[in-house]
Amino acid sequence: MNGPAPFDRSLPSPLRVLTQLRANASEAVVRDQKPSTVQQLMAPSGPLEDALWDALGREDAPRLLILTGSAGSGKSATMNHLLEREQATREGRIGLHLADATHSDSPDQEQAERLAHFLSDFSDSAGGITASEPCRLIAMNIGMALRFFHDLAKQGSALRFTGLEAVLHRRLNLPGRAAEPPAWLDAAVLVVNLDHRPTAGRRGDLFDLLLQRLDPDLPEGVFEGAARCGTCTVREWCWPMANATAISSDHGRAALNTAAGDIALARGRHLHPRALWDAAAELALSGLESQPAAHTDGDPCFRIAELAAEGAESQLLNGIGCNNALEQARAGTLVAELAARDPSYAPTKAAHEFITDTGLAPEEDQRRLTTWLAGRTGPHPAVTHAARILARGRSFAPGGAAPGRIIARAAWFAGELTTSSTLPPEFEQALLAIGHGASSDEPGDYDAALYDALQIIEEGLAEVFGVTSSLERYFPTSSPPPGVSADLLVEAKLQDRGWLSFHPDLALARNPRGSMLVRYRPLVLPLMVDDRSIAVDVPLWRLLVEAAAGTIPSSIELERFLALRQAVRAIGIKAAAEPGHPLLVRDLEGSGRRFRIVPRPGRVLRVTEVS
After folding, report:
1. Are 466 and 476 in contact (CB under 8 A)?
2. Residue 471 confidence (pLDDT)
3. What is the pLDDT of residue 32?
4. Coil, strand or helix: which one is 103?
């Protein structure tokens, strides 16, 4: 655009900050242990760093702290905050530290030598470091740790770390068997897996704190108060900053954080910080694609100025309230999964009324949008402008959100329209029990929750893989070959016989201290089916519940749970080998008749046709 800029170009662009938070932007990765200003503002020290710092100051402080996790879990940021505290306080809680193992899954020769030297006091030939020496701190990917121990001999090192490898093997719950580490080493090493940090779903989780820092008026937020906005003459067109205001509000954060927590439960794993940064930026930008001229130095604020000069009201309306981001979300992205949980699409009376009533009372529409998308200090000028346009009934660009959808989404961000909990209550209670360290083998306060959950699972297994007849449940003893006219099943009480149980959550059982520090919350139920360990997540739970209620799962769903099928088949074979279990012969052809066979003393069989 020609002429002077409608804002003070000497001040930083808040929209540029948003673009830098995307997963493919330069700000996505901390490099050379030198976080940028944006990274420092977006990932400040929080409860995790407080807990770790306190742990390092205790009498039983670890001698080696290993921060691990997959890429994007926040290892570098956490390590930097701890080192900054040590430098500021000089309390001597942290001594030697090594951070170059965070971005590679396999060490080269130089890295392997550096790691071996750094860990030498924890080798098999060492007796440990002195109690007066500060804790050593290292951040490394799980892949790097595994490759280091595996490739050490090939690197020509004389040091061996079988004990330290055993500690990591157990704390990270890796498959296979490992040697028992010496007691001194087991006590000296603290492993903190940042993949186990809850990031969404509850107030104070990472996503909640991250969204809060998008508040443009927050001096310590990611925009540092957005000083440029105070000089801008086209603020009423800037929907990205209006969106940042809305989603950083109490109700806006709660809406998105609840939806993100539901996504984590559906996935069965906590969401990565990097993905959350990306989603927050996409939601705020809501379709803004800057195409600045060369003289703008890539400043995306100029794109807003161009749209203002064009009077692009439809773009403003479609961008406000994160509508473009949610309507046009790319398949497979976190934003798309958030959009799928938009309660304005739910078949509820409230959602229907918000959508169908829009346009009947324009002044009420204007009031609602202005009120529901307001932040801590009131509505952003772009919200006020969009509300006036909406009240005038102006047309929308093709492919944009309908006026009713805009109002309904604003209601979502204001807490006027909420997503009903999708977590089944029995699953939630069992998950709570597992989170408190309960299992089927240890009687306690959570017996009822675990028993009820196992009953539901057993019913579902019988419906999916077996047959229910009256009060008895029968399971297959073999896989009938093609052309066979009947199959044989055996009655088995899975829970009563101990063939179906919950074992303790392994993250809590094998790494209790590290799990406590990250405030770990299980997202799946650790089920044992005979001798097979199977994680029951929300989708699998729903499949079993629906099957127990009479819904027949598709063949694709059955294939997804092949491990369950194999485990149930193994139980059927085991039960059939034991005397006394009733059998069921099922006609696989047209009649579908069933015959119950009960063994009696003297090798006599009693055969009865059953329904």
Report:
1. yes
2. 83
3. 46
4. coil
Calpha distance 599→190 (Å, rounded) = 57
Q: SS3 for 52?
A: helix
Buried-state track 286-320, b at ≥16 Cβ within 10 A, e below 16: bbbebebeeebeebbbbbbbbbbeeebbebbbbbb
- The span from the CA of 374 to the CA of 249, in Å, is 8
Q: Are 580 and 596 in contact (CB under 8 A)?
A: no
Are 251 and 413 within 8 A, CB to CB?
yes
Distance CA 66, CA 514 (A): 10
Please tell me whether residue 563 adopts helix, strand or coil conformation.
helix
Which amino acid is located at 382 in the chain? A
**Cβ neighbours around 598 below 10 Å, total:** 14
Half-sphere exposure of residue 241: CA atoms within 13 angstroms, side-chain side:
30
Q: What is the C-alpha separation between 524 and 503, in angstroms, rounded? A: 12
Angle at 205 between CA 138 and CA 28, to 5 degrees: 55
Q: Please check whether residue 67 is in contact with residue 138, taking contact to mean a CB–CB distance below 8 angstroms.
A: yes
| Residue showing tokens 């204007």 | 366
Q: Any bridge partners for residue 606, and if so which? A: 598
Token output for 343? 């309660």
The reported pLDDT for the residue numbered 99 is 75
Q: Which residues pair with 192 in a beta bridge?
A: 67
Unique residue bearing structure tokens 């990917």: 141
* Residue whose pair of structure tokens reads 């969401």 in the numeric block: 271
Task: Output the pLDDT for position 322.
Answer: 96
What are the structure tokens assigned to 247, written together? 């989603």
Residues in contact with 315: Cβ distance below 8 Å, sequence separation at least 6, in sequence order:
287, 307, 397
DSSP classification of residue 272:
P
Q: pLDDT value at position 4?
A: 82
**488 strand-pairing partners:** 585
Which residue, among 211, 215, 55, has the nearest Cα to 135 in the 3D structure? 55
Neighbours of 224 (CB within 10 A): 17
Write the DSSP symbol of residue 178. -
Task: Walk along the chain (611 residues) in steps of 10 and give the mean pLDDT of each run.
Answer: 83 92 60 62 84 94 93 86 94 88 60 84 79 87 81 76 90 78 91 94 93 93 93 97 97 96 92 91 89 66 93 92 93 94 89 89 93 93 95 64 88 89 85 90 80 91 86 84 80 90 93 95 93 88 82 58 84 86 83 82 75 76
Give the C-alpha separation, 151 to 367, whole Å: 65
- CB hemisphere CA count around 322 (13 angstroms): 29
| pLDDT score recorded for residue 555 | 52
pLDDT value, residue 35: 64
Strand 583-587: give its sheet, edge to edge.
467-469, 472-476, 486-491, 583-587, 594-600, 604-610
Total count of residues recorded for the chain? 611
Angle, helix 162-171 to helix 142-151, in steps of 10 degrees:
150
Contact 308, 19 (CB under 8 A): no
